Amino acid sequence: MPKVSVIVPTYNSIAYLPETIESILQQTFTDFEVLIVDDGSTDQTVAWAKQIVDPRVRVIMQPNQGVSVARNTGILQAQGEYVAFLDADDTWNHSKLEQQVYYLDTHPKIGWVHSWVSLIDAQSQPIGKPLISSAEGQIWEELLIRNAIACCSVMVRRSCFSVAGLFDPNIRSAEDWELWIRLAFHYPIGLIKEPLARYRVLPTSKSKNCQLVERSLHQIIEKTFADIPLNYQSWKSRSYGYAYLYLAWKALQGQTKDISAAIRYRQQAKQYCPRLRYSVEYLRLGVAIGLIQVVGGDRYTLFLRTVNRLQGWITQVQRINVRWHSQQESL
């Protein structure tokens, strides 16, 4: 039986799936199986996947039911001690599995582990700074307010799902946040402070559908706060506040910048949690909205893309310098 089961849900992702699978097959840790769960694709995904000759790769087909059901299908058929998730347009650093397997092997009381995440564009080029999370240990209370865990960075002990449950099939977006809350209630999480996963930022991704995301966030918050102790009920307004800040940013990230929606979501965030108006994120959002109103959406996108690429290059140079100094010190 493999040590790790890697679950790759896919739906019409043939443009990126080969690169995603290659990043798995090139891992320095090799004791794994790959479960490609095709969620009713109508492109060439299944035909391509079935041509893979590596015996560690299995293709599972199901009617289109959404990513939550696809991941659950993978979990239920997984044979590994550990389960890792990778969406069909994201990729991994070559040592991702090795580092996380070692972490869980040496920390038996930790139920799951994640890492920092790099951002890449459609051409797999780095954009912006990595998503640096500090979520570690007992983070259930932190997750009640906002999600700090990227699905592509997570590895979970398969036994944890029998306690915490699977992905909620009724939630169509941000579905991982709801599961993380349940996992964190039962198990502490580990953190590897290195960007081991790469999340692809695409203008057409499901997360850019603000109405879908809004409905899902409402589902998650209402479900979560219906099942927790009364002394946490006052946190619900904060959770909604951060959810609407998140939605406001999403409204500005689409191909068509919806300024009116961003302003409306920002106002709703303040109404739910008035103290958010003093947060850096709230103030940055106001600056972004103002810039778009002055220079227009296209120039704002160009400016942001330039800044993100510059930050990506600076981050790469910094990593090279750190590695060089480490090598010099070891000599």
TrEMBL record:
<keyword id="KW-0328">Glycosyltransferase</keyword>
<dbReference type="GO" id="GO:0016757">
    <property type="term" value="F:glycosyltransferase activity"/>
</dbReference>
<dbReference type="InterPro" id="IPR050834">
    <property type="entry name" value="Glycosyltransf_2"/>
</dbReference>
<dbReference type="InterPro" id="IPR029044">
    <property type="entry name" value="Nucleotide-diphossugar_trans"/>
</dbReference>
<feature type="domain" description="Glycosyltransferase 2-like">
    <location>
        <begin position="5"/>
        <end position="158"/>
    </location>
</feature>
<keyword id="KW-0808">Transferase</keyword>
<protein>
    <submittedName>
        <fullName>Glycosyltransferase</fullName>
        <ecNumber>2.4.-.-</ecNumber>
    </submittedName>
</protein>
<dbReference type="InterPro" id="IPR001173">
    <property type="entry name" value="Glyco_trans_2-like"/>
</dbReference>
<dbReference type="Pfam" id="PF00535">
    <property type="entry name" value="Glycos_transf_2"/>
</dbReference>
